[in-house]
Amino acid sequence: MSKGVNIYEIMQRFWRENEYEPFSTAEIALYFFLINRANSRRWQMPFKCPTSVISTAIQVTRQTVVNTRESLRIRNFITYTKGTGKGSHPLYSLVLTDNLTECLPEELTETLPVSSTVDLSDSLTPYNIEDRNIKDKNYSSIKTGDVKILSLEELEVLLVNDELWLNEIITLLSPSCQIELPDLKLYLGNFFRYLRCQGTKGREEDDCRRYFVNWIKKQPINKNKTTLKPTIHATNQPSNDARRPAGVTAKSATDYEGAF
């Protein structure tokens, strides 16, 4: 018996993340291509793979491959190193955790045809048998195997009190989207209301944290607001127009009666 990779757990994690924030068609194609590639190399990572090969295999442009692999890296599914020129191809690794590896017979990790990955991904549900109906359960801190599922109420209390983590998120946001800690906590409350509206009852802590980071980065946050100063005259004249505006003295319709 050797240390192998639990492909079912890998795909289960992928589709569970997809429920939080759907992956694009290109992201799905690239991820399962890399699973097949890693499996054919018996999970010896990192492994080389030319961008042109990936582009041809999943039928997208080279630039789409570049953008897609970065998206998967941000969502903590892969890591990669860019190629440095002709003959130096990019290196890829799939991000694996302890529960994604297990002791398997050597022959089970030798090959995995592309058709198999498609069939398996179609037949697998986002959850295993024990927690597939998680949205219909009323529970608190249910532990499924090695994965601890917390209720939204528990997660909200845990995350809102983790001010060190929240401050790290603030530093992650771009300068044009800076907000204060109390405002970020309000966004966190809106995030959990959003999950409840989706019918979600509970999630893993790490998944919830990752989803919130992705969610907050897409919110229209803009703290660089300027206060408009009141103008003396009611006019549509641009502020940079140096000409003296014509004052309007009429206060009612009757002021316009009479000859002009």
UniProtKB/TrEMBL annotation:
Residues 159-218 form the DUF7833 domain. It holds the Pfam family DUF7833. This is DUF7833 domain-containing protein. Residues 231-260 are annotated as: Disordered. Residues 231-240 have a biased composition (Polar residues). InterPro entries: DUF7833. It comes from the Bacteria.
